[in-house]
Prior knowledge:
- With 152 residues, the chain is α/β, with parallel strands linked by helices.
- The protein has helices spanning 12-23, 35-40, 47-56, 70-80, 96-101, 103-124, 140-151, and strands at 3-7, 27-31, 60-63, 84-89, 129-132.
- Helix 4 packs parallel to helix 6.
Amino acid sequence: MSAVLITGSAGLIGSEAAEFYCQQGALVIGLDNDMRRQFFGADASTRWRRDELIRKYPHYRHHEVDVRDAAAVNRILAEYTSDISLIIHTAAQPSHDWAARDPQLDFSVNATGTLTLLEATRLHCPGSVFVFSSTNTRSSAAKSRMSASTCR
């Protein structure tokens, strides 16, 4: 059975991708640690979506993993190695306001997490297709705050 690994699998884009590939009969390996809850509070938690995917699709395998955790990411990719034909990377710190408040955390989740996943892919399933989903759009208010904070 072909496997698809999806990071941020309980988030908006990741969960839609997980559902699509589950419906196609693929084994879906989801990585998501509900960091939205940390960023935006309990009301933003994605646990309900994770639970729904687990309940609805027998081919969905969830791993409560932070994409920055190289040991855990490597362990999972090594376990499924040649079965993984597609990796969809949607895990991210999505808030520009957060990025301005805590650039270290923003960079570690977005850049280091992506590098960790790319390196694990290179080591364990180099033939896999890697899709990176991101945004670089900033609201005018966020741009203004960031510009003002860099000028101080």
